[in-house]
UniProtKB/TrEMBL annotation, chain A:
One of its GO terms (molecular function) is ATP phosphoribosyltransferase activity. Lacks the C-terminal regulatory region which is replaced by HisZ. This is ATP phosphoribosyltransferase. It comes from the Bacteria.
From TrEMBL, chain B:
Residues 20-340 form the Aminoacyl-transfer RNA synthetases class-II family profile domain. Keywords: Amino-acid biosynthesis, Cytoplasm, Glycosyltransferase, Histidine biosynthesis, Transferase. Pfam families: tRNA-synt_His. The lineage of its organism: Bacteria, Bacillati, Chloroflexota, Caldilineae, Caldilineales. The keyword Transit peptide does not apply. One of its GO terms (cellular component) is cytoplasm. Belongs to the class-II aminoacyl-tRNA synthetase family. HisZ subfamily. One of its GO terms (biological process) is L-histidine biosynthetic process. This is ATP phosphoribosyltransferase regulatory subunit. The keyword Ligase does not apply.
Length: 262, 431
């Protein structure tokens, strides 16, 4: 009887409400809940919040799902980066920080008032260096495998629209599909959960679309960047209802953050 | 036959069904109380009728199918267009204003991860034939009243005016790409995107200031925001939009609900057919709007003589979730604690006659149709949360379940003892 009627929409908030320590119950009702991304952006996000003069949780390694700020003013959820816009869209969290790449990929209805000065990277199309006439420095074996794709030209400087049906491994299927569709190319998107660089090496894909920071990972796997799809950095996202219902508190936070971004 | 149902639709039953139905009834009754009459448009009609005025987002979300004669049909994705068609095509010579209210399912194709059903319920009202701010104010006040009836204590109505933005666009004379850029910046309330727009778009000083000021045209200080906006008027349309908003605010004074309003002149993300004031109602604990509406003076004219119109639709599903969050209830499924009494007539026609009298008195009574012995009736009653079992012995003997779950004989049935219990069972779902 439970599974039929429990609409999926209720899940995130329910989980949060249930796992909330009872002491935090009263305060999260009125004050703010902030969703932060685990992983790459976590430390930068926390330092940035601290610089902005917000009280941050003292114990971020805790296994508790909701962490109160040191002064109890705000609650924090450490979420998978991809889930941050979802939490915020549904109002499970009032605000969140995540990468612009994730915001564009997930395409959730949230406000995004500020870009934040960290987490800079780019979402790029990359392909085997061998195909571009460059011998990869690393592994000859990998280069041999990389030549396997039968698809047409994908060298730098060659229009992507010359490709017929490139197979593209990515964690960003939506942005990838759109990028190629805009060029009239109907790409075959192979959605992976990580390590997309393996795609060309194993012959699974002709190209990859992935986030690049320094390019080291690409080079190590014999790949070169061909195009940039999106310049990304961290962004503040806000729930549309909270923006109005908790305008004073949220504007105060935006104002403080703005001082650090301009 | 695996008994599955398609993604995006749901079976509602037990408490959830009765809560849903009674909320729908309460809301409809509220609209009726303001002079709105029931209308029941068809569940599907010609696609060309429904989709003409929608924006891309709603149009791509419609369920379409072919009729046997080859015409394209759509399931209604909302009620406003069907009701506007009715008034434009068939009721155009009936005295205006005309007020209609409706309640029922609408259908939209939504991505599975959107976290929403594809069949969901709306209740709403439409007021035709009145262009005045008083009509807009009535719809806003009625919305606030309906939200209170639905049990929401804290909510805000975010009021915008699409004409202000559209007139600004006219003044700016942007190309489609620039328009897109500005719209995107405003929809996402993104300062960096707005700065980028201002950086790459050549504008005259006054126009530039009008755009720069947009993000400040949001907030509770209605009067202050309208005054600020008035300083950056570029053309007649912007002026009229603000005049109209002032008129609405004035017309709302008598309703005593102004504290629930927020102005947002940058809120432009809305159904394509609005021409004037538009609004959304939001409530804590729910990230999306529980109601939305506005003025659409160009829609009726598509189907007949033009008529000004304004209306609102409330999302029943979202109201239920919002109320549940607000009251801190658990999940919205389960069974009402008190079920209708179970009567065992023991084959006596007199017993059934007595049951009929109880029912006429407004009590909920179910009759044993399996010729159960008392033990079997108690077992069934215990498992299905029935508290009252009535056994016919030349008159009903009343057995009541006690705290331990055992049935105790109270003696001959006194209607008052039963009515207290069953009246509660009727009220329970509406709370």
């Amino acid at each position: 009887m439970t599974s039929t009627v429990a609409a999926p929409r209720r899940r995130p908030a329910e989980i949060i409400e249930q796992s909330q320590p009872s002491a935090a119950n009263g305060q999260t009702k009125q004050s703010l809940l902030f969703a932060l991304p685990k992983g790459r952006l976590a430390q930068d996000s926390l330092s940035f919040l601290e610089q902005s003069g917000l009280s941050i949780p003292t114990d971020t390694e805790s296994r508790k799902l909701i962490l109160p700020a040191a002064d109890g003013s705000i609650g924090f959820v450490m979420a998978k980066p991809r889930d941050v816009p979802t939490y915020v869209e549904h109002g499970a969290a009032d605000l969140g920080i995540c990468g612009l790449d994730v915001v564009r990929e997930t395409d959730r209805a949230v406000y995004e008032p500020l870009l934040l000065p960290f987490g800079h990277c780019r979402l790029s199309v990359a392909g085997p260096a061998g195909a571009a006439g460059v011998t990869p420095a690393e592994s000859v074996e990998a280069a041999d495998l990389a030549l396997k794709p039968a698809s047409s030209a994908h060298m730098p400087g060659t229009p992507l629209r010359y490709m017929s049906q490139p197979r593209i491994a990515t964690e960003y299927p939506r942005l990838t599909r759109r990028f190629f569709a805009e060029r009239g190319v109907n790409a075959e998107i192979i959605a992976l959960g990580g390590s997309v660089e393996l795609g060309p090496i194993l012959g699974l894909a002709d190209l990859i679309v992935d986030v690049v920071q320094t390019g080291t990972t690409l080079r190590m796997n014999g790949l070169v960047e061909i195009r940039t799809i999106l310049e990304s950095q961290a962004v503040l996202v806000v729930n549309r209802a909270s923006y109005q219902l908790k305008a004073a508190e949220i504007n105060r936070i935006i104002k403080r953050m703005r001082l650090l971004t301009t | 036959m695996n008994g599955h149902i398609p993604f995006g639709v749901a079976d509602y039953f037990w408490d959830e069904a009765s809560r849903r139905q009674s909320l729908l009834d309460q809301l409809m009754e509220t609209f009726r109380g303001w002079g709105y009459g029931d209308v029941i448009p068809p569940m599907f009609e010609f696609d060309s009728t429904l989709s003409a005025q929608y924006d891309d987002r709603l149009r791509s979300g419609m369920y379409r199918f072919l009729d046997r004669d080859g015409s394209t049909l759509s399931l209604r994705p909302e009620f406003t267009t069907p009701v506007a068609r009715l008034v434009g095509a068939r009721l155009h010579d009936w005295p205006m204003p005309q007020r209609f209210c409706y309640g029922g399912s609408v259908f939209r194709y939504l991505e599975p991860q959107a976290g929403r059903q594809r069949e969901f319920w709306q209740v709403g009202g439409e007021l035709f034939g009145a262009p005045s701010p008083d009509a807009d104010a009535e719809i806003l006040a009625l919305t606030a009243t309906a939200l209170k009836v639905a049990g929401l204590t804290q909510f805000r109505q975010i009021v915008g005016h699409i004409r202000y933005y559209r007139s600004l666009l006219e003044a700016l004379q942007l190309d489609p790409q620039q328009t897109q850029q500005l719209q995107w910046a405003l929809e996402r309330k993104s300062e960096p995107l707005l700065e980028e727009f201002l950086r790459v778009t050549p504008l005259r000083t006054g126009q530039r200031q009008a755009v720069e000021t947009l993000p400040q045209l949001v907030g509770e200080n209605v009067d202050g925001i309208l005054s600020l906006a008035e300083r950056h008027i570029q053309n007649r349309g912007m002026h009229e939009a603000l005049q109209n908003l002032r008129g609405i605010v004035d017309a709302l004074r008598g309703y005593d609900i102004q504290d629930s309003f927020v102005i947002d002149l940058t809120e432009i993300r809305n159904l394509g057919y609005y021409t004037g004031v538009s609004f959304e109602a939001v409530t804590p604990g729910l990230g999306t709007a529980v109601a939305s509406g506005g003025r659409y003076d160009d829609l009726v004219g598509r189907f007949g003589p033009p008529q000004p119109a304004v209306g609102v639709a409330l999302g029943v599903d979202r109201l239920l979730v919002a109320r549940q969050r607000q009251d801190g209830h658990g999940a919205a499924y389960g069974r009402q604690r008190i079920q209708p009494a179970l009567a065992l007539p023991q084959g006596s026609p007199d017993a059934l006659a007595q049951v009929q009298r109880l029912r006429q008195a407004g009590l909920h009574v179910q009759v044993d149709v399996n010729s159960w012995p008392l033990d079997a009736a108690f077992d069934y009653a215990a498992e299905t949360d029935i508290s009252d079992v009535l056994l016919w012995e030349d008159g009903f003997q009343h057995h009541r379940r006690d705290e331990q779950g055992d049935f105790v004989l109270l003696g001959p049935l006194e209607m008052s003892r039963l009515s207290g219990r069953t009246a509660k069972c009727r009220e329970e779902p509406s709370k």
